[in-house]
Design a protein that fits this description.
The model has no long low-confidence stretch (mean pLDDT 76). The N and C termini lie far apart (49 Å). The longest helix is centred in the N-terminal third of the chain and has 36 residues. This protein has three helices and no strands.
Length: 105
Amino acid sequence: MGQCGITSSKTVLVFLNLIFWAAAGILCYIGAYVFITYDDYDHFFEDVYTLIPAIVIIGVGTLLFIIGLIGCCATIRESSCGLATVSFHSFDLKNCIADAYSMCI
């Protein structure tokens, strides 16, 4: 009976980390698409700040991928230190997104 709760919680955590990986892949694709789309427009590269949003999107996607990878490894190995790290960084990332959204409003 006790194994059912552990197995289901592991399954949910792995599924959530797979969602992190999917989000990371989508963000990296969007950032790369911006770079590829504006590759032919040389006048955009005259301005230094044109492609900074694309770089930020790729950076956030990479961070999400790393968090998801650590989360999957920590879930499978049942590492309390790894799970605490993922929990902290997920909370920190959520706060950064909320702050950026509040600055836009």
